[in-house]
Amino acid sequence: MLGDLKKIFKVYQKELFDYNKNSFFESLYRLLAIIIFPIIKNLKPNFITFISISFGFVVLVAFLNNYIINLNIILLFFLASFILDFSDGMVARYQKKTSFNGRFLDGLFDIIVLGILHIIFYEIIKNEGKNFFHTYFYLLTLVLLPIQHLIIDRYSAIARWINEDKKKKIKPYIRNIYLGNLTKFFFDLQHVCIWTLFIFKSKYLYFIDIFYLLSFMASSLSIGIYIFLSDKYFSNSNNQSDNRA
Fold first, then answer.
1. What mean pLDDT is predicted for residues 77-82?
2. Distance CA 191, CA 200 (A)
3. Which of 183, 121, 181 is closest to 152 using CA atoms?
4. Predicted model pTM
5. Do the beta carbons of residue 171 and residue 159 sit within 8 Å?
6. I need a surface site. Which of 60, 170, 185, 244 has the fewest CB within 10 A?
7. Could you give the CA distance from residue 194 to residue 81 in angstroms, rounded to a whole number?
């Protein structure tokens, strides 16, 4: 067990807490994933992904039915889900079972689990009787989250299509190139809010507000950048060959 822990740590140690490669909390969750790796190393990677997503659904159902009202318990489920999200790829590489299907399922994590967390925070704010504009800002942010991923995936698909059809070299995923460390910074601040909720329970509404504001800013920037890049790279690439009568 200790030998497995040393081997897997050696694989990832160079990129841990290197802000040029990962945000602080990405490194933290990866480190925690390394710690539990010996326990889950023989599980199927996709099964780990489904467990991660299931945690989010279990909490959502329990919360909406008033079975779980303790915010700390809710957050613990999500933190466990975040750690497992960094574990499935680790296990897949260890078992030499990496696949595009695995990447597809893993990619759903951001949309589903983070979406569920946003929904729970939205319900908490709504139950607090916030004013009309405050509530609808939350709702707008909640809607922007899947739209952001839809635009990114659509851009990526079109870029690969153009590269194949026109023999060009458009990078299909370049948000981090344009936003650089800002993307990691937004991610870290959002997770600071999540972790801080454990400590300052009486101020939880303020930290949920900050979490949503950061989410809105990150989604808006991402959507704006990909619309700009679409106009820049796709405008001069016609698809006349596909416009058959």
1. 91
2. 14
3. 183
4. 0.85
5. yes
6. 244
7. 13
